[in-house]
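Long-time lurker, first post.

We've been arguing in lab meeting about whether flavin-adenine dinucleotide would sit comfortably in this protein at all. Half the group thinks yes, half thinks no, and nobody has a model to point at. So I'm putting the question to the forum: if I give you the sequence and the SMILES, can you give me back a predicted structure of the complex? Inputs are below. Any interpretation is welcome too.
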Amino acid sequence: MQNPGSQTVSAHATHDVTNQPGDLTGFNAYSSDHALRDAIRTFNAAWATPNLTDLGALIGSPRMAQLARDANRHVPELRTHDRFGNRIDMVDYHPAWHELMTEIRAHGSISLGWTADRPGAHTARAALSYLWGQGEPGVCCPATMTFASIGALRHQPDILACFQAKILSSEYDPRPLPPGQKTSLSVGMAMTEKQAGSDLRQTQTVAAPAGNATGPGARYHLTGHKWFFSVPLSDLFLTLARTDAGISCFLAQGWLDDGSRNRLQIQRLKEKCGNRANASSEIEFRGLEAIMIGEEGRGIATLLDMAHLTRLECALGSAALIRQATIQAIHHTSHRTAFQRKLADQPIMTNLLADLALEAEAATWLAMRAAAALDAAPRDDGQKSLNRVLTPIAKYWVCRRAPAVLAEVLEAHGGNGFVEDHCIARLYREAPLNGLWEGSGNVICLDVLRALTRAPDSADALHAEIAAAKGLHPALDQSLRQLEATLANPQNFEPNARRIVESMALALQASLLLRHAPSDIADAFCASRLAGDRGIALGTLPSHLNFSAIITRARVPAR
Ligand SMILES: Cc1cc2nc3c(=O)[nH]c(=O)nc-3n(C[C@H](O)[C@H](O)[C@H](O)COP(=O)(O)OP(=O)(O)OC[C@H]3O[C@@H](n4cnc5c(N)ncnc54)[C@H](O)[C@@H]3O)c2cc1C
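Top reply:
Settle the argument with this. Predicted structure of the protein with flavin-adenine dinucleotide, as tokens:
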């Protein structure tokens, strides 16, 4: 009798695998991104090219694709107790997570903006963050909060001086030890409670002085809970609690100086729609030891100086998702045939790809312009005013576009896009998050309007930024006139807030593209987004546009 295992494979073959495009890997995510490279040159950060090119190679590598897959498939696990029953409140991560965390630190994605004392430092760091957003967005959460913590800790310079070097270290040290025994420190932020995330004035957690001293720099014991706390193994974290003077900001250590866990308990980890590699937890403070940071009773304002920076990161992260989705769509449709023609060459698909490429280029410029304003703010009052309003505008609009783009890109992949083997399914689940956290859409629009009404300099700076392209396209000139009318008559802002912020974002993107991008891109953007020559869905551009030029600029070149 013949052994079935000895029969040739061909005797049982059912089909050949054909017409499957394969993975888009083995490319340099920086070198192949024309819009990003142009933005880096324009905004004084060309000196960072070697670092960006180095990271770009990692982000486009098969290794990165594997790490991202593994870190999201093998999700973090909570271990509340050790085997003897002692409370430990630890989280176990897959080795892929630790490798990603090592890399994100090593490339300066946390530190560069603060440590490179030269123009363009924040712009360069923002580009690193944007590249990571295409690699594995989960690790961007701890990196972002650690980077942004400097904004809040500056309110307490003595405390910042104690920790700054380790916060900005390029080493990754995951050991559960007190700060003094570690080579680097991660910083988290725990604000959201069950009853309120946006309206932090409803904070219930209370702080009681731990000794006779009270006020900034004094020690307190905190009792209460937080409903969302990402990175529960943070070495340090900022949080909010009530004192008699109102809601104040506090800094707590994850592990106390004697090596014990600070007095917090992790109740459970969230089962999330996306961002699964990153653990987000529910915690209770049971007499948590913490130090007051900044003015007593002004805790929300103190933490907003951190949140302003994390909002920039949200815009960068969503621009990254849009870019990554767009190049995946171009890759897939360029290598898959239907009805005797490559999908990318089917006229309706070509229109969609061009529309996606416009979104990607415009998102990249807007997010990077916000980073450049942050960079220039210490040296230039006009840029400081612009930074105040540009960051929330970019956060609102770029984050709003990401889910729409991801939905189209998933569909462009057909059934393959809906299966977890492919990165698009993961990025699709990730897409709404940047819009949600660090101020959801409505809250961000209200923040823009607050900036414009309370800080007239910001309105002037916004106008100047858009007007820098005045005369370059009639549709932009028309948008500028509308903006002037809106700013001159700030009545009834709130119900129209989304509409107003959207039109500001589009005018900003158009202005940037007219000044810095090829004319095919800028003209197509103005015709479709400002003059309204399009439908509501993506892929509805007017057909006379130069789709080929627009797609070619976005495409990752074949190796
Ligand atoms: C994966 C994940 C991780 C997170 N990690 C953290 C973390 O580490 N630390 C932390 O502190 N928080 C964290 N959060 C919480 C997040 O910041 C909040 O969910 C967010 O701020 C919204 O708060 P909320 O959920 O209470 O919603 P709500 O405040 O109830 O808002 C619900 C909706 O109402 C809208 N809204 C609110 N106020 C107004 C208004 N005045 N006018 C019109 N509309 C309004 C909002 O825009 C939103 O769309 C995380 C959330 C997620 C999903």
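For your lab meeting: The CA atoms of residues 230 and 280 lie 4 Å apart. Residues 1-6 have pLDDT under 50 and may be disordered. Whichever side wins, do check it experimentally.
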